[in-house]
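Quiz preparation item.
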């Protein structure tokens, strides 16, 4: 399986729009890995995880052929991960689309999408955009062709049914987390018998709030989660562990993050990073 980071930023992106902080100013000068788009991932060439406000730009920049995308999995309804308007351009009169796409997410994701349809169109059916809605319920694995996703409850966005995903394809397992906080007990229990080849973890609060664990994680808690995954046997020293979803509010500069994480064998993700699993 190939896993591509299309974006590694939290909600405001980096440099955050209009922000005067020192990290955003440095990112503007440094460019390269310090420019971060909103979190999204491409698995092989047919599956996206999250589709936020940078989707158009990311698809061009990273050569994502949107005509090959069969499904988009949504972690939660925050606007940096779900931009329903972009899916509405699939409807007749705006784009020529004949192929269906599966939109997979919680009840909140599907309701958010339907609300956008109701607001901007007169037709209240997913059919108008060739969308097949697929409900993801935490703890219930769902198989679509060769891909199986186990949705896991996240410690994030209370009341919004936020999830993260254990994804299995062709015998490889990936744990995809970006807005998770320290995992809830239920999620630890659901993954306890799994072994992951790759893991991505929520590093939003970064170096400035290292012990943050509710809603989003700081760097110390990222290491704590990695260590617990090791202790439980969910990963071993061959598993690839990444940290992602950075905010300028926590210091998102690649060099500073690498100085902390690299000695701990955790890779700091950046936009465009492609991983072969
Ligand atoms: Zn987010
Ligand atoms: Zn800033
Ligand atoms: Zn969020």
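Solution:
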């Amino acid at each position: 399986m190939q896993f591509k980071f299309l974006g590694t930023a939290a909600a405001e992106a980096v440099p955050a729009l209009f922000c005067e902080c020192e990290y955003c100013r440095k990112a503007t000068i440094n460019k390269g890995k310090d420019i971060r788009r909103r979190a999204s991932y491409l698995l092989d060439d047919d599956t996206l995880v999250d589709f936020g406000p940078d989707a158009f730009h990311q698809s061009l920049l990273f050569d994502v052929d949107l005509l090959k995308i069969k499904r988009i999995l949504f972690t939660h309804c925050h606007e940096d991960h779900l931009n329903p308007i972009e899916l509405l351009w699939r409807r007749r009169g705006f784009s020529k689309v004949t192929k269906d796409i599966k939109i997979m997410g919680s009840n909140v994701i599907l309701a958010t999408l339907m609300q956008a349809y109701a607001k901007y169109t007169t037709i209240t059916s997913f059919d108008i955009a060739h969308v097949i809605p697929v409900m993801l319920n935490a703890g219930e694995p769902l198989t679509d062709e060769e891909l199986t996703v186990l949705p896991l409850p996240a410690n994030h966005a209370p009341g919004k049914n936020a999830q993260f995903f254990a994804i299995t394809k062709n015998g490889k397992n990936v744990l995809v987390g970006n807005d998770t906080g320290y995992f809830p007990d239920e999620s630890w229990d659901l993954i306890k018998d799994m072994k992951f080849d790759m893991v991505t973890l929520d590093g939003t609060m970064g170096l400035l709030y290292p012990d943050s664990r509710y809603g989003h994680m700081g760097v110390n808690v990222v290491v704590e989660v990695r260590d617990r995954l090791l202790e439980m046997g969910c990963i071993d020293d061959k598993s690839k562990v990444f940290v992602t979803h950075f905010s300028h509010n926590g210091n998102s500069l690649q060099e500073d993050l690498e100085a902390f994480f690299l000695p701990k064998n955790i890779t700091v993700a950046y936009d465009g990073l492609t991983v072969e699993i």
